[in-house]
Design a protein that fits this description.
Immunoglobulin-like; four-stranded antiparallel sheet; 31 strands; globular; disordered N terminus
C-alpha cells in the first residue's frame, strides 16, 4: 500500500492520514503507462512499470466514472457509486484487454498517412491554411517541417538553439507563433531571410493570450475567472476601442464548493500528512473544471456552444439571435468536452467515446464519422475533413516515439 501512495506524495504516509472525505482508489492493471482519469476531466494518474496505480478521489454524492486507456488496449470505464466513495480505500484491479482492430478502424497506423520524427521527435504541430507545420527537435537541434495535407514534407526551416522552442500556437489571425522559454516568435513560413520576430512571452500572453478571432469591426476574446471555473466572452470595437460583454459560462457554484473544500482541507490536514502545498495542488486537480463553452465564427455568423444551458445559439455580428437548438451530445456520459472546428469546411466536431462526431448546429444532433483511439491528452486539429493527431508512445526499449497521423473524416 505504501508503494502505491508514493505515486501521489513524495513522503511515506498511511491511509489514516487522509481526511474521511477522501477515497484512495488503487489496483493493478497488468500494464504500464495506462492513463487513469476521472471521465471528462484532466485529473488522473498513470500506472507504473508493475501495472500498479493509485488515485485519490474526493467524496461525492454523484457517481464517478474512471476512464482507463492505453495505446494498443481497449478503453475501459468503471463506475464508482457514492456508497463506495464512503470508504477510505477501494481496490479496482483488472487486466487491460488488448485492442482487436478491425480493418476499417482508422487507428491502424499503417492505413493512415503519417510522419514520424525518428530520433528528432515531433514536439508539436499546427495546421495553417492547409500547411501542416511540425516542430521537431532532440534537445540540441530544432527545426520546423512544412508538409502538405498528405503529410509529405516539402520544406524545412532551421531554428536557432537559443530559441528553446516548446510548442506551436495559432493566433487570432491564423499566423504561426512559436512558443519559447521566455519569448514568443511569429514565424513567417514564406520568408526564410527573416523567419521570425520575437515578443516577450508575458507581454504576448497579456495582449494576445485571450484572443479568439478577428472580424472587420471587432476583436473577440475569451477570459477565465475564478480559477477557470467561469468563462467570459467579450469583444472590442476596433474603431471606438469599447469593450462589450457577450456571454458568460457561470461556474460560481462550483467555485464556492471548491473554496469550501480548500478551507476544510486546511483545517483537517493530518499533522504528519502531506504538506499544505501538496493538499492544495491535489484539491485543485480533484476539482478541475474545464469550462466547455465555445464561441466560433462561421460564414460571418457567431456560433455559441452554451453547454451550461444545453443550447447551440447562432447570431449575426450585430448580436441578433438567428436561431438556437438543444444540444444532443452534452448529456452523454462519455462525451469529451471539446469542440473542434474545420475552418476549411465550416463544420464542427466533438468526441463521444471513441467516435469523432460531426455536430449539426441547426438541430444539435451528431453524426459519427470516424472511430479513433484518441484520449483527452492528444493534440488534434482539423482541416478540409482531415483530422490530424499527434501521438506519443514509448517503445519496448523505453525510447519515445512520436508521429503525426491523418484520418479522413
Amino acid at each position: 500500500m505504501k508503494k502505491l501512495i508514493l505515486l501521489l506524495f513524495s513522503g511515506i504516509m498511511s491511509i489514516a492520514s487522509f481526511a474521511q472525505t477522501k477515497t484512495m482508489v488503487y489496483g493493478n492493471l497488468g500494464v504500464e503507462n495506462v492513463n487513469i482519469s476521472v471521465l471528462n476531466t484532466q485529473y488522473g494518474t498513470v500506472s507504473n512499470a508493475q501495472g500498479q496505480y493509485a488515485l485519490v478521489l474526493s467524496d461525492n454524492n454523484k457517481r464517478i466514472n474512471l476512464h482507463y486507456s492505453c495505446i494498443g488496449y481497449q478503453d475501459t470505464v468503471v463506475g464508482i457509486t457514492p456508497k463506495q466513495l464512503e470508504k477510505d480505500s477501494l481496490n479496482i484491479s483488472f487486466r487491460m484487454r488488448k485492442q482487436a482492430y478491425a480493418l476499417k478502424e482508422v487507428s491502424i497506423l499503417a492505413d493512415c498517412p503519417h510522419f514520424e520524427g525518428d530520433r528528432n521527435i515531433i514536439m508539436d504541430f499546427e495546421v495553417y491554411d492547409g500547411i501542416v507545420c511540425m516542430l521537431q527537435g532532440n534537445g540540441n537541434k530544432y527545426r520546423l517541417l512544412l508538409a502538405d495535407v498528405d503529410l509529405k514534407v516539402f520544406d524545412t526551416l532551421p531554428l536557432s538553439k537559443h530559441l528553446k522552442p516548446t510548442r506551436l500556437l495559432k493566433d487570432c489571425m491564423g499566423n504561426c507563433q512559436l512558443m519559447g522559454s521566455d519569448s514568443v516568435y511569429q514565424i513567417d513560413l514564406q520568408n526564410k531571410t527573416k523567419p521570425y520576430l520575437a515578443t516577450e512571452r508575458n507581454h504576448y500572453n497579456a495582449v494576445m493570450g485571450d484572443c479568439l478571432f478577428l472580424t472587420d469591426h471587432h476583436l473577440y476574446l475569451r477570459s477565465t475567472v475564478m480559477d477557470g471555473f467561469s468563462t467570459m466572452f467579450y469583444r472590442i470595437d476596433m474603431a471606438t476601442k469599447q469593450k462589450q460583454p457577450l456571454f458568460v459560462d457561470d461556474g460560481s457554484d462550483e467555485f464556492k464548493e471548491f473554496i469550501d473544500e480548500m478551507k476544510f482541507d486546511a483545517a483537517n490536514r493530518p499533522e504528519h500528512g502531506p504538506s499544505h502545498e501538496d493538499w492544495e495542488r491535489f484539491t485543485r486537480l480533484a476539482w478541475f473544471r474545464d469550462s466547455s463553452a465555445h464561441l466560433a465564427l462561421m460564414r460571418k455568423k457567431l456560433v455559441y456552444f452554451d453547454h451550461e444551458n444545453n443550447q447551440i445559439r447562432q447570431y449575426d455580428q450585430n448580436l441578433n439571435e438567428l436561431k438556437s437548438c438543444p444540444i444532443d451530445y452534452s448529456q452523454k456520459s462519455d462525451w469529451k468536452p471539446q469542440i473542434l472546428q474545420d475552418p476549411a469546411k465550416n463544420k464542427f466536431y466533438t468526441f463521444i467515446g471513441h467516435w469523432l462526431h460531426e455536430i449539426d448546429i441547426n438541430t444539435g444532433e451528431t453524426l459519427p464519422k470516424a472511430k479513433l483511439n484518441v484520449d483527452i491528452y492528444s493534440k488534434v486539429a482539423l482541416w478540409n475533413r482531415h483530422l490530424y493527431i499527434l501521438r506519443r508512445q514509448h517503445t519496448s526499449a523505453g525510447k519515445l516515439r512520436s508521429y503525426v497521423e491523418r484520418v479522413d473524416v
